[in-house]
Q: What sequence folds into this?
């Protein structure tokens, strides 16, 4: 890959991602807050579709030898604690890290203030890293494991279940939203 | 009733609306994931690169010595790699989308926040900063964010990522119910 591609490639990928996030309205703090208040399901619609469409494609790419999996370590205690903090932070901040970066560029000043908070959070993490490594990061570790490996249920069954589950759920959400709009 | 509708229409310019379906946007992000896996071998993610950049900001805060000695930043030094350029692309793409759709606007206090906590800018900024710090600490502890774990890990059916998704949404719902409870 040429030097140009190593910069331009990720820049264009990031720009496409940011463009889509903005078009999907998820760079709006209101949309994210209302997802957690169960008043607006945009976030789940975007994420659910991305996971099903992306997942089936990546499965085919892996099966045909065009890519491999890049699975993160299942350090169960660290992931659970981190995700809990993440959920709290996301509701208080009103953004997740990626949507926040997009929001700053669409004029959200409080997203910029929160981005400075994110820098502070990263510094605090780096400073507490030695302690975390000794006490948290290596507790209940399963390695780079995937659900199909763990359950012996094949990939295709997982995606079939996900697609049907998401389809039914979104159908229910859409019909409820349509009824509210009429009423 | 008509006056409310009229004032709403007057305050909202006709251009300032985005009508892309969230499913279309989700499918677009899924498609972007195929490219990320097959062409670049680098799944979509935000916070790993963010913490690399945070080391720059950490130098004036905790001193260059402490940053150089830090075990976490030794394992994750600042380098202008794929992830960092991807990160730079996100606000660029969001900016282009916002300008094109006429939805760029300064936001100091978002509507959902104003409705519940009032128009105080200081209050919102403090919450955004604290929320930002908590979300980034959580993301580093968990090893990813809504993009890296939620979408990229979710579509790979990674055990760590589905644990992240479940815990993140559960705590988010709980905190949101507490924050926005009826007085």
A:
């Amino acid at each position: 890959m040429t030097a140009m591609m190593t910069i331009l490639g990720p820049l264009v990928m990031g720009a496409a991602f940011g463009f889509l996030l903005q078009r999907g309205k998820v760079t709006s703090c209101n949309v994210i807050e209302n997802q957690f208040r169960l008043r607006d399901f945009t976030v789940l619609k975007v994420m659910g579709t991305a996971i099903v469409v992306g997942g089936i494609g990546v499965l085919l790419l892996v099966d045909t030898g065009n890519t491999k999996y890049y699975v993160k370590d299942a350090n169960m205690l660290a992931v659970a604690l981190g995700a809990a903090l993440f959920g709290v932070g996301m509701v208080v901040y009103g953004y997740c890290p990626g949507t926040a970066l997009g929001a700053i560029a669409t004029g959200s000043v409080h997203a910029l203030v929160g981005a400075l908070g994110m820098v502070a959070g990263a510094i605090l993490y780096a400073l507490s890293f030695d302690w975390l490594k000794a006490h948290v990061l290596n507790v209940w570790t399963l390695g780079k494991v995937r659900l199909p490996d763990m359950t012996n249920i094949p990939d295709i069954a997982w995606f079939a279940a996900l697609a049907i589950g998401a389809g039914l759920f979104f159908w229910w959400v859409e019909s409820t939203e349509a009824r509210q709009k009429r009423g | 009733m008509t006056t409310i509708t009229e004032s709403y229409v007057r305050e909202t310019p006709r251009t300032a609306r985005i009508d892309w379906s969230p499913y279309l946007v989700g499918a677009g992000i899924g498609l972007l994931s195929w490219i990320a896996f097959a062409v670049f071998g680098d799944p979509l993610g935000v916070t790993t690169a963010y913490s690399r950049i945070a080391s720059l900001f950490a130098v004036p805060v905790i001193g260059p010595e402490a940053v150089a000695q830090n075990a976490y930043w030794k394992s994750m030094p600042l380098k202008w790699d794929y992830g960092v350029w991807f990160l730079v692309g996100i606000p660029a793409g969001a900016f282009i989308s916002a300008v094109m759709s006429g939805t760029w606007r300064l936001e100091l206090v978002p509507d959902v926040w104003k409705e519940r906590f009032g128009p105080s800018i200081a209050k919102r900024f403090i919450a955004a900063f604290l929320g930002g710090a908590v979300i980034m600490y959580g993301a580093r502890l968990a090893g990813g964010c809504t993009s890296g774990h939620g979408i990229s890990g979710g579509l790979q059916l990674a055990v760590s990522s589905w644990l992240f998704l479940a815990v993140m949404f559960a705590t988010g719902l709980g905190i949101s119910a507490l924050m926005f409870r009826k007085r």
Summary: The first helix of chain B runs from residue 2 to 11. The CA atoms of residues 57 and 90 of chain B lie 20 Å apart. Chain B touches chain A through 124 residues (CB under 8 Å).
